[in-house]
Amino acid sequence: MKKLMTLASALALSAGMAAAQDIRVGVSPGEHAEIMEEVAKVAAPMGLNIDVIEFSDYVVPNQALADGDIEANSFQHGPYLDNQMKDRGFALAPVATTITTPMGLYSDKIAGPDELEDRATVGIPNDPTNGGRALLVLQDLGLITLAEGTGLVPTVLDITENPRNLRFQELDAAQLPRSLADLDAAMINTNYAIASGLNPKTDSIAMEKADNPYVNIIVVRQGDEQADWVKPLIEAYHSDEVKAFIDEKYQGTVLTSW
């Protein structure tokens, strides 16, 4: 005998259907993409269907978000977002922190930064925030000295001491792993290192300090901060399941912020 649906059941089903939402989240290759796929698994039973959109560089995800092609992105740290908003006029807003991925120094030719010879060529990202971040790491390693007051975005023009006469080649961040053969060393973001088959823990010859200002964030368009899909997105990302995935997969090379 066919069972008739009660009014309460129909209303509950209708409410459940109304609550289900589809969103598109932009990510960069490597750990950001891999983690967001895990977030999508956690979010699905909560009624949030996440389509993970992978971009190959750092410029397009914010443009895509500003243009309405995606609802959120998860690939950048606060200083990079601030610089993008200043330079490009994007009306975007961070809504949650995610992970920290210490930048590493890599080389096919030497085993440590102390082995860099006079006039060695070091690759750094060509965007202001990650290029500045790379220079700050090289300063922490004692290889260069930067002028005071440059904050988080120094450039090669701010180098005041360079005892090894290092030469700097500024390249797109995604190209740096593939350019190692032509460089003596390169400062590489963790996501591009992992995407290129490098293990930050075993293949880097030096790593950025863990206590740095470059914690990554989930970003939405201004005005969407209170959208009803934002809370479940954050809850899914900050879940125990996602934290366990990160801890197990990355073994300390990717650090959670919650």
From TrEMBL:
Name of the protein: MetQ/NlpA family ABC transporter substrate-binding protein
GO CC, any one term: membrane
NCBIfam families noted in UniProt: MetQ/NlpA family lipoprotein (TIGR00363)
Subcellular location: Membrane
Keyword terms, alphabetized: Lipoprotein, Membrane, Palmitate, Signal
Leader sequence segment: 1-20
Entry keyword annotation includes DNA-binding: no
Family membership: Belongs to the NlpA lipoprotein family.
Primary residence: membrane
Alphabetical list of Pfam families matching this protein: Lipoprotein_9
UniProt lineage: Bacteria, Pseudomonadati, Pseudomonadota, Alphaproteobacteria, Rhodobacterales
Entry keyword Transmembrane: no
